[in-house]
Amino acid sequence: MDAELKPRLGLRRWLLWSALVGLLVVGQTLLVVLTLRYEHSRALDRAEAVAASIALDIRRLAVQRLQGVQDLQWSTAPADWGAQARQLLTRMPEIARLERRDAAGRILASADNPLGQPLFALKARQLLRMDSDQACASALALLSPQFSRSYFVPMSGGAGMEVIDVCLPEQEAGQPAGFTAATLSLSRMLEAVAPADRRYELTFVEADGARLARHGVSRGLGLYVARRSLDLPGVVLEIKVDDTTDRPGLLPNVTTALVLGLSIALAVVVSLLLRDMRRRTSAEKALAESLAFRKAMEDSLNTGLRARDMGGRITYVNPAFCSMVGFSSAQLLGSGGRDGALPPYWPPERVEEYSRRQSARREGLWPDEPVSPATESLPATLQGFETVFMRSDGERFPVMIYEAPLVDGTGRQTGWMSAVLDVTERQRSEEVARQQQERLQATARLATMGEMASLLSHELNQPLAAIASYASGCQNLLQEPDEHTVPMLREAVGRMAEQAERAGRVIKSVHDFVRRRDQARETISAAVLLESVLPLVRLQARKSGTRVEVQQTASDLKVQVDRTMMEQVLLNLTRNGIQAMERDTPLHERILRLQVQALSTGRVQFEVQDRGPGISAEVAQRLFTPFFTTREDGMGLGLSLCRTVVEQHGGTLEHDVPQPGAARPGCSFRFTVPGARPAG
Ligand code: ADP
Description:
Layout: H1 5-75, H2 81-91, E1 95-102, E2 107-112, H3 130-142, E3 146-147, E4 151-154, E5 160-172, E6 175-185, H4 186-193, E7 200-205, E8 211-215, E9 225-232, E10 235-243, H5 254-300, E11 304-309, E12 314-317, H6 319-325, H7 329-332, H8 351-362, H9 380-383, E13 385-390, E14 396-407, E15 413-422, H10 424-479, H11 485-515, E16 521-525, H12 526-543, E17 547-552, E18 558-562, H13 563-581, E19 591-598, E20 603-610, H14 617-622, H15 638-648, E21 654-655, E22 667-676
Helix pairs in contact: 1-2, 1-4, 1-5, 10-11, 12-13, 13-15
The protein binds adenosine-5'-diphosphate.
């Protein structure tokens, strides 16, 4: 990966994760806050509802109590008033005291509620009747019951009671006849209407918030407070309802629990994601490392690598392959398919052959190349095959290709992978070695010939010199013949015969030397004989781009030959053929054909055919003369040696005599050797 890109990606990932976590935290906080708010508003609503119902209940209670007092006022004779009043007071504990007053407001009779302390025991009624009197005055004016403002009545033991008076006017014949006043205890009223669950503190408060009377087991906390005004005739009372329960905790109810549970689950999911992410990152890192390693490995390889799909299209090449052929990967990739461009490294003269091979591969017929005996036991892909590629500058060079199927993860073949080796150097060194070997052999042959020549000249020189001197002696004798001439001639001729015999013996010994090789003959398959020289022939042929074709009519032909000498003959003839095509034959015409066939005579004929310029009649005359050559570096011994060897095997070495004006140039050398019946 790009070194610059890495930290930028890391920063971006970090920012994204921070944003995600931040959003989650904000979202969760918002959710919890909203839930708490909702809880809060619900508690407030409940308090409001309680306040509304309390106000209603108190109004109802006040009206009931008022009716009770009205009943007492209307239906009771003054004499019974006391008893009736007490009865009423026991029924209605909220009424702390009842008074009957005259039209001037003087108290005629009064009754305190027997359930509590007498109201004005500590402080005289006289001192606390101002509010009550005001209510009575307005009741008289309005001719309807009126409530007074509330006031505090101190009682023994430091206690006291906040009360409210209600005054009912009485009329007789349209004239004010008196009043009935009832004193209501505010706290008892609250007690009477308090809800059963005792969760709220109920209070009567003044407009400024001062508390008048309260009811409740415990104090309210001031969190969820509701107020309601209670409009009674003559007075407005304010009721306050205060919830005694505390603020909702973090887990006050199912909703919050649910929200929290979700938050925790979310946090777990996020942490799992993070872990997964970390794993993925490390896996990615490992993958990147292994990719980098693979790339470095491929880049540093000296072997060219090339991958092709099933259609033969190049899908991958490594740098070694690019530098081998001298084309960039952009020029190579995509070429070679069924419809794509030809691979630029195919030599134009081989396109046809390579295309055939490729289509054979596509049809699954490949590899069909003849394999050499050394690699026959190996799987086809490991044997490799040799072919010729072209560099971008047009230079042809030999390569060794090892090809294997490219199989993907599912076991399906997706193409071919090839390792390509440039074997120019190897072949060059092989060629050098071969040339050295050949030179050595030639030198050895020359040495033998030279030796033989010097031996012959030395051995023959003496008898020939002797014969020559005898001959000139004979000539001298014949110039002036006398009676001694005949006996002397006889002797001289006898000596000459002796010397000739001696020369004959020398020649015979050379003949014997050659004959001795007869014993070296062996029965060998013609195919094996060819096989042993073909590598050398091909090596030499490749230099000039010559193709070598071998034709055998039967695979089991056997011959009886001096193998070393016969190899020499074949090598000489093929080398001559290749050399003949080297100069003027066009590249696609350079074909050397080797043919072996059995003749009806039981002999086996070898033929070496080239497409060179052929042999002119002039050259043909001296062809087998030792040391005759038309080549600068030639020795002119090859063909004469060949003929000797072939004749040694009882055959003749023949060659085409050029027909004047023949359409097809070229030359072919033929010879026969003894065949051997195949075993079995
Ligand atoms: P060298 O090859 O050393 O010249 P050879 O005895 O093999 O000696 O060949 C003698 C000559 O015969 C060659 O120089 C060449 O002119 C001619 N010659 C041999 N073979 C062929 C051939 N196939 N085509 C044309 N000329 C040939």
